[in-house]
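Practice problem 4.
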């Protein structure tokens, strides 16, 4: 491991020297004066005084050497469409959208909210926004009106770009009614909404003056050339909301120069991905994986990126490997849940296409169990690498790094700390470093490396209070994950330390779901916990106390009421957050000081021992949970 060890050691012991060298992987309009300014911990400022632009580095920079090579390979199995954009064509489109945004008054520092499916136009919008020095906030298309409204109010965008609809499993998800409702709920709606009409939803309404047609605006700017706006390295490039322990999503803010350098270094050393090749992340642009590895990482690295709208099993379970084969994907990134979906299918589908061009399949987002890891590695005959990171960091924290050294895989472990991350496993009780084999909090000694979140949008105090106050006398970043290291230095992730759950690789706050359930007028109180699921990792399960018991007096009424509550969650948060079941009880287990005993509920739901219950207010509440679970098992 000498190669990795030395590389890592240098990144920690000499961050300025190390990152100063990595920074030459991108173009700078003006060189920085200092690699790192850490005079105001825990706020890190990377490449101070340097000026650059993400769009220039992702697009313009490649025109001379690879203008005619593919940049985006759009494949939609939902609308049966395929289209390739070369770097030159991407440049043209981005200039047009940049001109559109300018004509709507968007300039440096303004926010543009993008609520779109994973289609090229969404990526044009992201790149156009950063081209003109504005800040994008992409909201996942599965989020419902109330969540969208909360994000609008926090980001206060000048313009919003959306589409008529997204598609999933052949079903249209109409965006416009959600957008209209969100704008009605919002306190600071944007002046204009640009609608890209895919002609999926033929019934979209337009509000005159506010709503504008993408195609019409586009036609006005066919020959546009919009110069890039050079930004100081630390100026923001985007905001991406993520769930935490409170009901209010946090806007993860990322900078410009550090963001580009962190990502391009990860492409080279973590993914071993090379310019001119094809990279494919099977995520959605609404998540961090989409931002980092559908859009910025591959393009910054001069690669073609597959932009896929679809699921792994339609039109048949060989579709992914067909794409890998046809487009010569060399590095692929997906999630354990997607692989578990494929595992249920006939393995012959995996052998239908020659995938020998695929160097690695990386998986992240949730724990990768050994059986899934073995199954996909054997079926593909290609290396499968587990790696671990979070929205906040924007790129991997723990990984096998074949770009530096090919280290052996240990099942169940995302391997080693990635360069730049001074990773510590700290005992919860006294913040001391844990011994091998001891379960501890996964923490990062600041400064966080380039590319990580720089603050919570509009709320520096929340950034510090949320992430850096887990230990009383120690300023360290908490990942809110439990972890462990073995004698050989392999790391293991052992679940969250907080009330966040992970459903199919998507992070959901149990409090957020509880608030959505409580939006139903007949719900007095509710506890949501995550329970283990063999396909999706975890599923949310709700235990609710109703105000008017007559509404659940019969089994039929109960089922109807449960459905209504689920629909409320769909409307408030989105169907991704819908509890698998809502079980009605008359009492919830709480401590004498009124704190919900979520861990005990979760343990019971998973058939485990609920642990120490001396602080419980009323043991009868636990009996109700037990009975509700027993009822579930019988069904
Ligand atoms: P998100 O910010 O939505 O990507 O979620 C990040 C969280 O997902 C982490 O804090 C972990 O709890 C979990 N996670 C991500 N990757 C892995 C992995 N490879 N193994 C275990 N848990 C993971």
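Answer key:
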């Amino acid at each position: 491991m000498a190669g990795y060890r030395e590389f890592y050691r240098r990144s920690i012991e000499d961050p300025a020297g190390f990152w100063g060298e990595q920074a030459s992987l991108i173009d700078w309009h003006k060189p920085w004066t200092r690699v790192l300014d850490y005079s105001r911990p825990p706020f890190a400022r990377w490449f101070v005084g340097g000026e650059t632009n993400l769009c220039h580095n992702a697009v313009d920079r490649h025109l001379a050497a690879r203008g005619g090579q593919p940049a985006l390979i759009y494949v939609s199995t939902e609308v049966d469409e395929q289209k390739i954009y070369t770097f030159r064509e991407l440049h043209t489109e981005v200039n047009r959208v940049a001109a559109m945004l300018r004509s709507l008054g968007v300039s440096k520092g303004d926010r543009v909210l993008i609520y779109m499916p994973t289609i090229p136009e969404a990526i044009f919008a992201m790149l156009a926004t950063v081209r003109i020095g504005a800040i994008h906030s992409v909201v996942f298309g599965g989020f419902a009106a109330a969540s969208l409204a909360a994000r609008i109010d926090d980001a206060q965008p000048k313009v919003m770009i959306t589409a008529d609809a997204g598609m999933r499993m052949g079903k249209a998800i109409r965006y416009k009614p959600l957008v209209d409702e969100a704008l009605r709920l919002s306190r600071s709606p944007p002046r204009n909404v640009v609608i890209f009409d895919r002609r999926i939803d033929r019934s979209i309404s337009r509000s005159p003056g506010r709503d504008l047609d993408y195609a019409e605006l586009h036609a006005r700017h066919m020959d546009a050339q919009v110069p890039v706006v050079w930004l100081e390295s630390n100026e923001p490039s985007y905001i991406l909301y993520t769930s935490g322990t409170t009901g209010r999503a946090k806007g993860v803010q990322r900078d410009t120069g550090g963001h580009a350098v962190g990502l391009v270094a990860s492409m080279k050393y973590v993914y071993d991905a090379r310019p001119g090749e094809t990279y494919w992340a099977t995520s959605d642009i609404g998540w961090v994986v989409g931002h980092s590895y559908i859009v910025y990482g591959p393009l910054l690295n001069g690669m073609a990126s597959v932009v896929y709208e679809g699921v792994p099993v339609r039109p048949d379970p060989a579709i992914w490997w067909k794409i890998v084969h046809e487009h010569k994907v060399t590095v692929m990134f997906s999630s354990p849940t997607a692989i578990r979906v494929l595992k249920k299918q006939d393995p012959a589908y995996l052998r239908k296409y020659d995938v020998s061009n695929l160097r690695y399949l990386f998986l992240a987002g949730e724990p990768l169990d050994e059986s899934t890891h073995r199954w996909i590695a054997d079926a593909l005959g290609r290396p499968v690498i587990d790696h671990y990171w979070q929205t906040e960091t924007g790129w991997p924290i723990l990984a096998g790094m074949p770009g530096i050294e090919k280290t052996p895989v240990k099942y169940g472990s995302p391997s080693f700390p990635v360069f730049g991350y001074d990773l510590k496993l700290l005992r919860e009780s006294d913040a001391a470093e844990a011994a091998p084999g001891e379960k501890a909090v996964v923490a990062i000694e600041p400064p966080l490396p380039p590319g990580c979140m720089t603050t919570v949008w509009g709320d520096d105090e929340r950034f510090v209070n949320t992430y850096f106050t887990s230990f009383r006398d120690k300023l360290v970043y908490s990942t809110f994950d439990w972890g462990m290291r073995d004698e050989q230095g392999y790391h293991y992730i052992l679940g969250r330390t907080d009330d966040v759950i992970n459903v199919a690789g998507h992070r959901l706050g149990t409090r957020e779901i509880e608030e959505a359930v409580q939006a139903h007028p007949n719900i007095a109180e509710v506890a949501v916990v995550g329970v283990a699921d063999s396909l999706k990792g975890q599923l949310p399960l709700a235990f609710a106390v109703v105000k008017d018991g007559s509404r659940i007096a019969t089994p039929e009424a109960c089922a109807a009421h449960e459905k209504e509550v689920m629909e409320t969650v769909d409307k408030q948060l989105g169907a991704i957050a819908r509890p698998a079941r809502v079980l009605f009880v008359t009492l919830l287990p709480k401590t004498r000081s009124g704190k919900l005993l979520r861990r005990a509920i979760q343990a019971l739901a998973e058939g485990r021992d609920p642990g120490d219950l001396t602080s419980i207010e009323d043991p009868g509440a636990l009996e109700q949970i037990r009975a509700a679970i027993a009822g579930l098992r019988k069904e």
